[in-house]
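Students often ask what a holo structure prediction actually looks like on paper. The answer is less mysterious than it sounds. You provide the chain, you provide the ligand, and the output is a string of C-alpha cells encoding the 3D arrangement of the protein together with zinc ion.
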Amino acid sequence: MKIQRNTKQRQLILSILMEADRPISINEIYNKVIEKLPSIAKSTIYRNIDILLKQDLIDKYHFHDNEIFYRIKADQNEHKHYVMCDQCNKMFDLPSCPIHDIETAMEEEGFIIQKHQIQISGICKNCAGRKQINTKRHK
Ligand SMILES: [Zn+2]
Ligand SMILES: [Zn+2]
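The corresponding C-alpha cells follow.
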C-alpha cells in the first residue's frame, strides 16, 4: 500500500493522538491543535481526520450519546474496543471483540460487514465504590 505523505496539520493530529494513547474527542483534538496552529478552522481538522480514517491510521469511536472520539492505531490491522465510565470518563479496553462470530454468520448470508461499533456504558470500580460510600454516609 502506498503511504501518502501527510501534511504538517495531519502530522500534528497524529502526534496528539499518539500522545493521548486512548480515544480522545474532537474537542480535545481541536484544543490541542490550536495551541500549535491558532488559526486552523475546525472544518480543516475534520477534513484531515477523514483522510487519516481513510488511510486506516486512526479509528473512530462513539461514546456518551454519540460524541465522536478518535484513536491512533498501532498498525492497520489493530482492532480494539473501549468502554468509558459514565462518571469519571476513564477508558477501559474491551477484552475481545464479540462481533467476529456475528460477522461469520452474516457472511454466510452474503452480507459483508465492513465496519462496526460497540457502545457500552457503565460505571467503573472507583466510581461505584464512591457511590456506596456516599449512600452509607447519608443514612
Ligand atoms: Zn469512573
Ligand atoms: Zn470489533
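The radius of gyration is 18 Å.
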